[in-house]
Amino acid sequence: MNLSAREIALNILYEIFENGAFSNITIKKHLVEGLDHKEEGLIREIVYGVLENDIYINYIISKASKIKLKKIHPVILTILKIGVYQLIFIDRIPPSAAVNESVNLAKKHGHKGTIGFVNGILRNISRNKDEFMKIEVKDKIDYISIKYSHPKWMVKRWIKDYGDEFTEELCRKNNESPELNIRINTLKTNKDELKERLVDYGFIVKDANYAKDSLIVENPIRITELPEFKKGHFIIQDESSTLVGQIMDPIPGSTVIDLCSAPGGKATHLAQIMNNKGKILSRDIYEHKISLIEENARRLGINIIETSMSDATKRDESLVNIADYLLLDAPCSGLGLIRRKPEIKRNRREEDIDELVKLQYGILNNAKDYLKIGGILIYSTCTIEKDENINLINKFLEKNKNFKLVNIEDKINNKQDITTLKSGYIQLFPHIHNTDGFYIAKIIKER
Ligand SMILES: C[S@@+](CC[C@H](N)C(=O)[O-])C[C@H]1O[C@@H](n2cnc3c(N)ncnc32)[C@H](O)[C@@H]1O
């Protein structure tokens, strides 16, 4: 029997809420053959919409329900969330349809009582929408947390580091869908040629703002099914991440170590910049991820990447003093990726950050010995947490006086809203740069 788009969305959300699953992987798993673009679009809209607005939706349901949220069966609660999301956020769906579709799901998954419960709550919210949407709290942290559905600890940290207005803008932007970026594989094609091909297929394409090898695709549905993708003419990569290669800018023929390499987005870009000449040692702690690096390298026509499994927290004597360039694209809290993976807001815990900082520092401390004198270290993360970025790098530089940040002004042409290039690092934010939240520092080992 074919499931409706809303029922598929229910199954996906249930798995994410109950098992802490990743949104992109779970969506892929549940999309079945035969769904048309419109149904697939609705499933994605509901899943991402509910995840992005989860705290606000819960707030609205708890105002309407006499039963505490914790006491509502998780499937019924998810059905309610799908209904509320459509009532509040999707204008084109008539309220009666939003209510009826949720009631139909309740008929399938609940009993007489729960059907009445879902119907009553959704009708009440639909009739008094403005009243239910009001956020009646005085505290700024509580307000931002509910309105933009970010956990309080996150809002509190960001207000402390960046201020109220900045945090509100950032949280607002985190709930918008990001554009898709692709990176051109200059070993196989060039920007103009690829752009022309994509436009011929009907894609709307424009240049990215900061990364030379990146394009923005506005309507990317099923872009990875194109022959150009299969032939390795491009890879999906946010432009912030593409800037890592651009800023490292390794010379062809060099030896590069990439300690946390999977799935190889940055390693393959470095190979491209090196014109597929030299050597890149790509390592990762997870065996199953190594094959992803190899698959990407093969598709992109790269043969200078040598993969192996290793734990970067353990010192490897065979690497000491061999690297001209070293990339530490560290495991991090991922708080710069909330637009793409809204489940991060539910799954990440504040305690994780201290743990991650210890891990990052441990790896950095090994990495420093792998560089030759005069070698270049790039440290990057996809987070906006100062403790994982600038604070960590400052602590490292304080303890290792032979390392210095390098001016990177010549590496980025468009300097709009980036003021720290001279100081050797950049911190990008979704609401300012329209990229993932991302940190990159370039450091030289002077002696
Ligand atoms: C930010 S991701 C790397 C993304 C990759 N550089 C790219 O551009 O495609 C961080 C990677 O670190 C790996 N990792 C986590 N802990 C590690 C460790 N102790 N040693 C080596 N790799 C580790 C994870 O498996 C993950 O693939």
Automatic annotation (TrEMBL):
<feature type="domain" description="SAM-dependent MTase RsmB/NOP-type">
    <location>
        <begin position="170"/>
        <end position="446"/>
    </location>
</feature>
<keyword id="KW-0694">RNA-binding</keyword>
<dbReference type="GO" id="GO:0032259">
    <property type="term" value="P:methylation"/>
</dbReference>
<dbReference type="Pfam" id="PF01029">
    <property type="entry name" value="NusB"/>
</dbReference>
<dbReference type="Pfam" id="PF22458">
    <property type="entry name" value="RsmF-B_ferredox"/>
</dbReference>
<dbReference type="InterPro" id="IPR029063">
    <property type="entry name" value="SAM-dependent_MTases_sf"/>
</dbReference>
<feature type="binding site">
    <location>
        <position position="311"/>
    </location>
    <ligand>
        <name>S-adenosyl-L-methionine</name>
    </ligand>
</feature>
<dbReference type="InterPro" id="IPR006027">
    <property type="entry name" value="NusB_RsmB_TIM44"/>
</dbReference>
<feature type="active site" description="Nucleophile">
    <location>
        <position position="382"/>
    </location>
</feature>
<feature type="binding site">
    <location>
        <position position="329"/>
    </location>
    <ligand>
        <name>S-adenosyl-L-methionine</name>
    </ligand>
</feature>
<feature type="binding site">
    <location>
        <begin position="260"/>
        <end position="266"/>
    </location>
    <ligand>
        <name>S-adenosyl-L-methionine</name>
    </ligand>
</feature>
<feature type="binding site">
    <location>
        <position position="284"/>
    </location>
    <ligand>
        <name>S-adenosyl-L-methionine</name>
    </ligand>
</feature>
<dbReference type="InterPro" id="IPR004573">
    <property type="entry name" value="rRNA_ssu_MeTfrase_B"/>
</dbReference>
<dbReference type="GO" id="GO:0008168">
    <property type="term" value="F:methyltransferase activity"/>
</dbReference>
<keyword id="KW-0808">Transferase</keyword>
<dbReference type="InterPro" id="IPR001678">
    <property type="entry name" value="MeTrfase_RsmB-F_NOP2_dom"/>
</dbReference>
<protein>
    <recommendedName>
        <fullName>16S rRNA (cytosine(967)-C(5))-methyltransferase</fullName>
        <ecNumber>2.1.1.176</ecNumber>
    </recommendedName>
</protein>
<comment type="function">
    <text>Specifically methylates the cytosine at position 967 (m5C967) of 16S rRNA.</text>
</comment>
<keyword id="KW-0489">Methyltransferase</keyword>
<dbReference type="InterPro" id="IPR023267">
    <property type="entry name" value="RCMT"/>
</dbReference>
<dbReference type="InterPro" id="IPR054728">
    <property type="entry name" value="RsmB-like_ferredoxin"/>
</dbReference>
<dbReference type="InterPro" id="IPR035926">
    <property type="entry name" value="NusB-like_sf"/>
</dbReference>
<keyword id="KW-0949">S-adenosyl-L-methionine</keyword>
<comment type="similarity">
    <text>Belongs to the class I-like SAM-binding methyltransferase superfamily. RsmB/NOP family.</text>
</comment>
<dbReference type="InterPro" id="IPR049560">
    <property type="entry name" value="MeTrfase_RsmB-F_NOP2_cat"/>
</dbReference>
<dbReference type="Pfam" id="PF01189">
    <property type="entry name" value="Methyltr_RsmB-F"/>
</dbReference>
<keyword id="KW-0963">Cytoplasm</keyword>
<dbReference type="InterPro" id="IPR011023">
    <property type="entry name" value="Nop2p"/>
</dbReference>
<keyword id="KW-0698">rRNA processing</keyword>
